[in-house]
Amino acid sequence: MASVTLEGVKKIYDNKVVAVQEFNLEIKDKEFVVFVGPSGCGKSTTLRMIAGLEDISEGTLKIGDRVVNDVEPKDRDIAMVFQNYALYPHISVYENMAFSLRIRKMDNEEIHRRVCQAAEILGITQYLARKPKALSGGQRQRVAIGRAIVREPAVFLMDEPLSNLDAKLRNQMRAEIILLRKRIDTTFIYVTHDQTEAMTLGDRIVIMKDGFIQQVGTPQEVFDTPRNLFVAGFIGSPQMNFLKAKLVRTGDKYAVELLGTSVALEDAKCKKLLEKNVQTKEVIMGVRPEHTVVRFDGSDNAIESTISVNEMMGSELHLHVNTIAGDRVILRLPTIDLTDEQRAQLSYGNKLYFSFASKVVHLFDPETEESLLF
Ligand SMILES: Nc1ncnc2c1ncn2[C@@H]1O[C@H](COP(=O)(O)OP(=O)(O)OP(=O)(O)O)[C@@H](O)[C@H]1O
Ligand SMILES: [Mg+2]
Q: Last residue of some domain: 191, 211, 231?
């Protein structure tokens, strides 16, 4: 068990690519932290620097209280699970798991104890005698995780361990990783580009883009108060809607005006805006699909739109609509209480209205793309 601290960490590859910069993060002992972000943002590079598989160009990396920049990977007390789990094909599952312990000349009894215990935790005891090729993808991934568990590392690193699995298995393994974490209470750093995985697994998530950290917070924090447009759009599915709007200040009060409607902001938001002394200005307003209210008629300050796509998701509809200003908006509508008449109205080209409460509004500066409410 150990904390992991990165201070001013930077990575420049030999070809001058700056993959990671200004990376500052303190991961607490036994914390589960997820690095998430689009392809090429520097997640694997950061993880590989922690593992010792890449040199750190600048900055300090500590595991516990020890600076490990120049410590060999094998002496860092970490274990890493990769996406392509690369098991040794010619030896049994048991020997795959025992391999790293044998290299360390651990005694057979202890190896046996650790392999059996890991196999038990992962539910692969019955496959220990098999060769990897006689296993399914999910079972192989479990062996790969088992290989890391047996080392009883202080820090567990996982780089997209589920991305080779199909959607159903991935969901199942995701739940298993949550259980695994409960059973082997240690520090986890987990890399994924999948925001659902990040949200469900992480105590905290680190959202990255172009080598920079964009925001660090609990899943709830980054969902409720995204720091900038990028985070707002990245976290949440379907993605947050962005609309051009005008923030209007009257004395100490603020309202958002768009498309002929006006929504007065509640006190907490006004307070934040006042702190920053924000004046009347053009803004980008964000509202999540699940926070919109669909209306079948145009009364009550509702915004008019035209339906372009109606996606049936089972328990809900995802309605893609266009406003008069050309903003494209996705609305989420539960299907359970819809009447036949209403369903008939929800087809291509028909008018539909929507509104939203002040509480669910996010506001961004169009120039800096930073949140005005952070
Ligand atoms: N060995 C390398 N030499 C040079 N550049 C590299 C090397 N490895 C990665 N890069 C570059 O560094 C940047 C970050 O790569 P990295 O693999 O860390 O991204 P990632 O966030 O893990 O992406 P993905 O989700 O696709 O795995 C990218 O621009 C990539 O092209
Ligand atoms: Mg990667």
A: 231
**Predicted TM-score (pTM) above 0.85:** yes
Whether 227 is in the pocket of ligand 1, judged by its Cβ within 6 Å, is no
Task: Look up the domain containing 187 and give its range.
Answer: 4-231
Q: Tell me the CATH number at 258.
A: 2.40.50.140
35 and 66, same domain (yes or no): yes
Atom 22 of ligand 1: nearest residue by CA position: 44
Ligand 2 centroid from CA 237, angstroms: 22
Q: What's the number of domains the chain is made of?
A: 2
Domain-embedded: residue 369: no
Atom 8 (ligand 1) nearest CA: 45
Spacing, Cα 47 to ligand 2 middle (Å): 9
Contacts with 312 (C-beta within 8 Å, 6 or more apart), sequence order = 335
What are the phi and psi torsion angles at 59 (to 5°)? 95, 180
What is the token pair recorded at 228? 């900038």
The pLDDT of residue 1:
62
CATH number of the domain at 35, please: 3.40.50.300
3 state SS of 340? helix
CA gap 373, 365 in Å, rounded? 10
Predicted confidence (pLDDT) per residue in 228-264, tens digit:
999 999 999 999 999 999 999 999 999 999 998 999 9
Confidence of residue 176 (pLDDT cuts 50, 70, 90): confident
Mutate to test the pocket of ligand 1, among 43, 191, 205 (most ligand atoms within 8 A of CB): 43
Residues 58-70, buried b or exposed e (16+ Cβ, 10 A)? ebebbbbeeebee
Q: Does the C-beta of 20 come closer than 6 Å to ligand 1?
A: no
109-168 pLDDT tens trace: 999 999 999 998 888 999 999 999 999 888 898 999 999 999 989 999 999 998 888 888
Is the CB of 42 within 6 Å of ligand 1? Answer: yes
Encode pLDDT of 4-53 as tens digits: 999 999 999 999 999 999 999 999 999 999 999 999 999 999 999 999 99
Pairing of strands 316-323, 328-334: antiparallel
CA 226 to the chain's CA centroid = 13
Q: Are residues 257 and 165 in the same domain?
A: no
Q: Say whether both 216 and 87 belong to one domain.
A: yes
* Per-residue pLDDT band at 184 (split at 50, 70, 90): confident
Q: Note the ligand closest to the C-alpha atom of 48.
A: 1
- 166 and 314 in a common domain: no
Domain presence at residue 282 = yes
